[in-house]
Design a protein that fits this description.
It is built from 14 helices and ten strands. By secondary structure, the chain is α+β, with helices and mostly antiparallel strands. The protein folds into three domains: 116 residues, no CATH class; 109 residues, 2-Layer Sandwich (Phosphorylase Kinase, domain 1), CATH 3.30.200.20; 211 residues, Aminoglycoside phosphotransferase (APH), C-terminal lobe (Aminoglycoside 3'-phosphotransferase, Chain: A, domain 2, Alpha-Beta Complex), CATH 3.90.1200.10. It has a five-stranded antiparallel β-sheet with strand order 1-2-3-5-4, sandwiched between helices. Helix 13 packs antiparallel against helix 14. It is globular, with a radius of gyration of 28 Å. It holds the Pfam family APH. InterPro entries: ACAD10_11_N, AGP_Transferase, Aminoglycoside_PTrfase, Kinase-like_dom_sf. It comes from Acidocella aquatica. This is Aminoglycoside phosphotransferase domain-containing protein.
Length: 460
């Protein structure tokens, strides 16, 4: 298929599988069902054509031998050259007869193979593994698990299991169940076995427990389930918190009062004593001589598993040059402290979620993660004034610039990892495709902009 590489067939099949399994069953009107069948048919054929295959390549190899030249790489150019040759052929010499026979035999072989692939895709869609399947958890499965965990309540029963949309590295699931004492609700944060960020809920749990005990606004962690077999992955069970999500990576309707409370919360978080809280034994890089250097080295090793991107190598090199200018902070860092990870009720912050990237490091990392959106809503100086008044320490411009660049590079590593998982067939979930093919290029654009800004004039 012209213009598509050898991964396109797998990519289109992943789109088609999600369309068949998650979209088509929800359609109800005759017109939308009809349009869905047309889309299904089109995607089925495109996936089959994108696969290519030996039959097509062998056809063009044969043509090259007969024509005495190497066929063009572009399929349109190949077809045009062959069409022109046949259109201007004269007479009935043996070479022309052989060419016609070869075209007929080769075309029959490759087009029969294509239609066989289309028919096979219509009958049984062959796709790679997908973490989307890990979201299919029935109330019956949850009931069985709960009765095993709480044998003193044999009548316990799960009444509803609802997947919260948007989880990319972990699944968030709302579970409603009835006990002898009445109805209850919990929230489960579950590992994906496929294509995870490499950080398990098992590592998150002690940090969240310490944050809860320190009085930070986090959902109460009820228990940790370390068995993968329980409901298809290790998970943490939380109490349900009030409020709504306070935004995305790019937008929020948070009030100034809410953001001031957020600033004070970050100050309290960064003041947690990692030794007295017991986190020094569990928190990443707590025992390293220079936690930020350990952070950069760790993610450089993660980056080296991806296809090379000179821009990302340049960003790592620049950060290492600046390491001497940023000091050696050793605070508790959330690692993903954006408004997309906040729950709120009016002006009140009810929960800071998703602690999977927490580690020992520099508070400037959390501040740069939220600055992009916060300063669109209130002046950054106002946010920092509240932060410092609540116990946070001043942060130098050098540290803010360092971690502004790191924020974009860090996100590029994660989104690039999602792209690799999809391209390699490790995880054919459309979430990985969306991250890899939409967000990853945007992160590279932002990284290029940040790196150019910091190397083209201003000196840290």
């Amino acid at each position: 298929m012209s213009g598509l590489d050898d991964r396109a067939g797998a990519q289109l099949r992943a789109v088609l599988a999600a369309f068949r399994e998650e979209v088509k069953p929800e359609l109800t009107s005759p017109q939308t069902k009809f349009r869905a069948e047309l889309i299904d048919m089109l995607l089925t054929r495109l996936a089959a054509e994108a696969d290519g295959g030996d039959a097509g390549e062998l056809f063009w190899d044969d043509m090259g031998r007969l024509l005495g030249q190497t066929p063009a790489n572009d399929e349109r150019a190949r077809n045009q050259a062959l069409s022109d040759l046949l259109g201007h052929a004269q007479g009935g010499d043996g070479k022309l007869v052989a060419l016609i026979a070869a075209i007929a035999a080769g075309e029959a072989k490759r087009r029969v193979a294509l239609e066989d692939r289309v028919a096979e895709n219509l009958r049984v869609l062959k796709t790679g593994p997908s973490s989307a399947g890990e979201l299919s958890i029935s109330p019956e499965d949850v009931t069985g698990y709960l009765r095993g965990r709480f044998p003193e309540d044999p009548g316990i029963i799960a009444t509803r299991v609802t997947v919260v949309p948007g989880g990319r590295s972990k699944a968030t699931i709302l579970i409603e169940f009835t006990t002898a004492d009445g109805p209850r609700e919990i929230v489960v944060r579950k590992d994906f076995e496929l294509g995870s960020a490499g950080i398990s809920v098992v590592e998150e749990y002690p940090v969240i427990r310490a944050a809860w005990e320190a009085g930070l606004p986090v959902p109460q962690p009820l228990w940790l389930e370390e068995r993968r077999s329980a409901i298809g992955g290790k998970f943490i069970a939380f109490s349900k918190v009030r409020g709504k999500s306070m935004g995305t990576l790019f937008a929020s309707d948070a009030s100034p009062a809410f953001l001031r409370e957020f600033a004070a919360t970050l100050a309290k978080l960064h003041a947690v004593d990692i030794d007295k809280s017991g986190l020094s034994e569990r928190l990443r890089w707590a025992r390293e001589a220079h936690p930020v250097r350990a952070l950069i080295d760790h993610f450089y090793d993660r980056y080296r598993l991806l296809p090379p991107e000179p821009l990302m190598d340049a960003a790592f090199a620049h950060l290492r040059l600046l390491m001497k200018d940023i000091g050696n902070e050793r605070a508790l860092v959330h690692g993903d402290a954006g408004l997309h990870n906040l729950m709120g009720e009016g002006d009140h912050l009810t929960a800071l979620l998703d602690w999977e990237f927490s580690h020992t490091g520099d508070p400037a990392e959390d501040l740069t993660y939220c600055k992009y959106l916060v300063e669109k809503l209130i002046p950054w100086d106002e946010f920092m004034a509240v932060y410092i008044a609540a116990g946070g320490r001043p942060v130098s411009p050098a540290r803010m610039q360092f971690f502004t660049l790191w924020r974009t590079l860090h996100l590029a590593i994660h989104t690039g990892t999602a792209k690799l998982a999809f391209d390699s067939g490790e995880d054919q979930d459309l979430r990985k495709a969306a991250i890899g093919y939409n967000t990853f290029p945007k992160q590279l654009r932002d990284l290029a902009f940040d790196l150019a800004r910091y190397t083209g004039g201003s000196k840290l």
